[in-house]
Amino acid sequence: MHGIVRSHGGFISLTTEVNRGTLFEVFIPASEERAPEPESREVPVRSLGNGEVILVVDDESQIDKLTKIILERNGYAVLTVSDGMEAVACHAKHSAEIKLMITDLVMPNMNGAAVISAVRRITPSLPIIVASGYGTETIQNEVAKLNVQAFLKKPFNANRLLQTISEVLRSEVRS
Question: What does the pLDDT average to over 28-48?
Fold first, then answer.
């Protein structure tokens, strides 16, 4: 969350009072640009999972948990890990079962680019989706160099996630 707020030029304020609680305030600069139209106009994804194993790599536990719930409710099996080192170890252990990996780019210890490189050495053809809250041109250029199948801008909704996975897995079947 902190990384997403910072990438938009904002900051988080924290106030704590004993026996009263803690208050987090998120400040993001106002923009004169119009907000994008909500994604609710998308046609719901009809092609659900059929038990395919998806490895989700994100250091934000809330994103891991929510993504896992969405995917499992829609027919996928999910492995979640919270950092790059765990991702490589998990992939090595389950490489024959994993059909797709979704990874964040900015993580402590081992970033997403290093994870992708290590995983590609084990399974060169594994479809990979990068999910990131950073939307800068630099990140977009880095993603393009990684030879991944898709980019998901955080925050994303369930339908966008399922649609992207469906498109990537369908394109792999046709390849």
Answer: 62
